[in-house]
Structures are given as C-alpha cells and as structure tokens.
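Nucleobase:cation symporter-2, NCS2 family
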Amino acid sequence: MSTEVHPVDEVLPVPRLLALGLQHVLVMYAGAVAVPLIIGRALKLSPEDVAFLISADLFACGLATLVQCIGFPSVGIRLPVMMGVTFASVGPMLSMAASPDIGLLGIYGSVIAAGIFGIVAAPFISRLLPLFPPVVTGTIIMVIGISLMRVGINWAGGGLPTLTKVVDGVPGAFPNPAYGQLQGLGISAFVLLVILGLIRWGSGFVANVSVLLGIIAGAILASVLGVMHFEKIVAAPWGDIVIPFRFGIPQFHLVPIVTMCVVMIVVMIESLGMFLALGEMTGKTVDRDALSRGLRADGVGTLIGGIFNTFPYTSFSQNVGLVSVTGVRSRWVTITGGAIMLLLGLVPKLAALVEAVPLVVLGGAGLVMFGMVAATGARILTSVDFRNNRFNLFVVAISVGFGLIPLAAPGFFHNLPRDLQPLLESGILLCAVTAVILNAFFNGFGSSASAKADAAAIASSAQHV
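Predicted structure tokens:
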C-alpha cells in the first residue's frame, strides 16, 4: 500500500506556509472587503458599523475557508480554495437594502435561508458532473479567466473607471480621477516585471512566492512615491470581537429568501466550474462526492455569513489563478490563508495594513494570475477532438460569446425582468448553461462512465504550470 502523500495534502514548512498563505490573502483582500463596503454604505450605516462589517467579513472568510479546506464529514472539498463574499449577491442585496421593510436584518435572514438551501441542494447540483466533459469544462474555465481579466485590468488602472457616489440623496456615476494615471500604470508594470523576472530566473521557494514578492516590491515603490498611505493603520484598533447577530435577530421574508436561493444556485454552478479547474491544476480527482462536499461547504459558509453579520460565500476564482501561477498545490497553504483572515478579522490594525496596499500594486499581479486561469481552460481544450467533431467548435465559439455578454455589454439585458438579473449578470453562468445545452444538442448527454473517461484523458495530458 502506497504511503505517498498527494501534493494537495502535503504539509509544507511553517515559514513557507505563512508566506504562501499571505500571498493568497493579498490576492483576495480587495474583493473580500468590497461587498461589505458597498452594502454598508447603501444602508447608510455609521463608519463604526461599516468597519465592523469588514471585520466580520474577514472573520467569516477565514472560517468558511477552513471548513472548505480542512473538511469535515460530508463537508469541504479539501482543495486549495479561498472563500469570499460573492459579487453575485450584490444586486439583490442592494434592492433589499433599499426596502424599509427588509433592510439589513432581512438580508441576513435571506442569507441564512440560502445557506441552508445550499447545504440541502449540494448533492443535486453535483449530479450535473456528467454534463461537463472537457469541451464544456475547458470553455467555462477559459471564460472564468477572461472575466477575471476585467478585475485585473481595473486594479491596474486604480479601481473602477467610474465611482458611485450619493449626491443630494441620489446615487450617480462619476469618473474616477485616479483611474489610468501614468504613475499607477507604472507601478502596475513594475510589479508585473518583478513577478515575471522571479518566475524566469527564480527557483524553488522564490518562484513560488513570486506574486507576494512582486506585491511587496510594488508596495515599497508606492510608499516611496506617496501612493500608499498609513493613516488608517495608525487609527485602527488592535483588537475587536465579532459578535453573532450584532445588529439583531434576522428577519425572514419570502421574496428575499427565494431571490437569495436563486443567487445560491448561480454561486454553486460557478463553484462547480472552479472545483473542476482546481482538480485539473492539482491533479486531484474531483468526482461527484467531492463536488457535493465542496458545494455543501459553500452552503455552510453562507450560513456562517448570515450568523456572523455578513453575506453569501463562494470559492474565490482569483486564488485559482494563483495556484496555477505558483504550482503550489497544498491545501495547507489556503488553510494558513484562512487562519490569517481570521486573525485580520480580530485585529483591525493588521487588516488596515493589508488594505493599505494600493489596487495598482495588485493590478500587476492580477494580469498574470487571471490570464493563467484562461490559459488553463485553453490547455484543457487541447484534449478536445476538433478535427473529427466540428460540432465542438460551435460549442466553444457560441459559449464564449454568451459568457462575454456581461463583460462587453453590461446593459445588454436591462430590459428583461429585474428578477432575472442575478442569472444574466454572471458571464460564467451564461457560458456554463450555453455550453451544457449546446454540447447536449450536438453531442448528446454523456454518461458517468464517459465523463470519467474524459476526465482521465484530460489528466493524462495535463501539465502543471
């Protein structure tokens, strides 16, 4: 009987775990704190309450990550995954925040209900695995990477081109004066060059933490140029306690609950694609049982979010790209990252230090990582038979087109019912649904056996980056 430890389960030395875990935290931090900031401001909460939302979010991120990566009976996929609040929930929650009958407590009630729904629905969603042969999986993963490139490009530009501000009680969009400034673009380019240099000429541990070293180098340069500021770090307290139900007992309303359950379905289908991507990157078989455990952990994470005053959780695709770039497959790295997130939630001063890193610094790293996700999808597609089965070309071509609609034309579906927006605003979901339908139309529904054969074919041709 072999006693060889799979790279996913390998426990690395503590110094390496800390550095690699911090690297994952830096990559996801901006996305992790964005949603509580948006919802807190929409609800006109006090600065103290918004700060608490951020601490609660970081704390719950850590808990959800530990559940997903350590794993418990029937819960947790045990792959290198970092969990964070899904942006798919922002639109519905903003609508709930605008309703005086729902508000924050109604949001938390819908989040808790959606978490329970996710736990129950996980086995049914995992049964969709036979619908994801290489032509579907590769296409979805490629679109995940392409969709994330928008995030990386906007980071490099210094945020979003337009900012939402409330003027005289009316929200509106205004140009971001910091967007696309030459200084910020120069910092992003510097970070990119440092990372590429370390990947090209570094070796071993240095190459593995190339993204972290690039971000540190960029932060130092930003500090010298006066772009990185430390006032919030000085003002932040050293300790805080995340209290469950701090704002009161959650309220449960039917329509918000149904809406959030729909969001949960979107989240779980996106997670399914990311789990399959991680399976390819790490060489770990992701079968139906593994998918059930991973999707159930999404539900548990969302339930934790509702209890600890935060929002629905999902596997962060940003960190999938980091796994591809570094080639480090150990889930103990993300377990360490989860522990760091827990610590950041309890020590606001440390959280403020991480938050102080400018987005332009993260931009240079984002271009590398997110492009690698798209490249992984393209690599999977190399195992697809395009020569003898021309239908596969149409599956990829049309699915990519649908997946890019929200990216290329954000207002494309604005005349359709508002309740459908959570479904239509997700390019990953549009791509997944289109690819599954087209593959079934052209190639028929695959059996479990053929799906396993396809997975084996991909695994035999996969080369870890």
